[in-house]
């Protein structure tokens, strides 16, 4: 099978296409013939790595797992002897989590992973693009305990996490203001934003409005600039917080009693099923910017690392 590997840390040029034996599933695993993967912000951060501390858990000198890629969508083509949830021929999609291995033609994965049946309303590319941003968005929205008719401002609204947050917050009954480049206004409006604002307007002196939830998706604005727009008793969400942000946020929470949510999310099957149901009913749209063939992984990483994708980037593996 074709596999794309990163056998050392570094620039997008580290990727190589290799030929591997097709793996056999263990007794609780299914094997998936992988039609589509995705390149997410987490992928290039691990490849680089960024931050450098990633080496502590992902391999000091080189990546412990040379096959990156978290999201997948494909067809079950073999099952282990104890598997009960899936059968050969099922279409499935989901997240391998920190097991990774998504940049490959075949993946073996435990049947109890964050993975579900791909409904006929969702294509393979959409299935591969759905998990990353939406599972992050829903986890932080749940932590923010956002209520119907509350206001939320989403900074970096055209990102993978942002495009999912707009739609899920609307579904929860919130009033959504999306902050993004003017070129992305029509995109964010098309998926439900009630109001739009560009980055300069967000930071301008005249922007004095406050919101029940300030949802910073991309780690590009300072904590004080976000706190300025937080209603008393509101919740600040820092999806892309750096270590420095986390220390600052923890201190502010402690000393001023402000609710700030940050840190790694937990991907759950329950949340994947919830979002899948919305997508099936046409109430959640997966935003796909571009797709690249598996062999063009370096170009895909360059594009995603540049930081201006709209929604998600998909990898075509088997057509
Ligand atoms: N806590 C967790 O567990 C968790 C989970 C997932 C992701 N994350 C983090 O969440 C962040 C977002 O991830 P993602 O995959 O959604 O990102 P992404 O899709 O790669 O973000 C791309 C978006 O960022 C915007 N952007 C770039 N530079 C900007 C700037 N200076 N100011 C404002 N917006 C800017 C771009 O808009 P323009 O083109 O208009 O500039 C673009 O739409 C990342 O930092 C990621 O590491 C954290």
TrEMBL record:
<dbReference type="InterPro" id="IPR013154">
    <property type="entry name" value="ADH-like_N"/>
</dbReference>
<dbReference type="InterPro" id="IPR036291">
    <property type="entry name" value="NAD(P)-bd_dom_sf"/>
</dbReference>
<protein>
    <submittedName>
        <fullName>NAD(P)-dependent alcohol dehydrogenase</fullName>
    </submittedName>
</protein>
<dbReference type="Pfam" id="PF13602">
    <property type="entry name" value="ADH_zinc_N_2"/>
</dbReference>
<feature type="domain" description="Enoyl reductase (ER)">
    <location>
        <begin position="10"/>
        <end position="315"/>
    </location>
</feature>
<dbReference type="Pfam" id="PF08240">
    <property type="entry name" value="ADH_N"/>
</dbReference>
<dbReference type="InterPro" id="IPR052733">
    <property type="entry name" value="Chloroplast_QOR"/>
</dbReference>
<dbReference type="InterPro" id="IPR011032">
    <property type="entry name" value="GroES-like_sf"/>
</dbReference>
<dbReference type="InterPro" id="IPR020843">
    <property type="entry name" value="ER"/>
</dbReference>
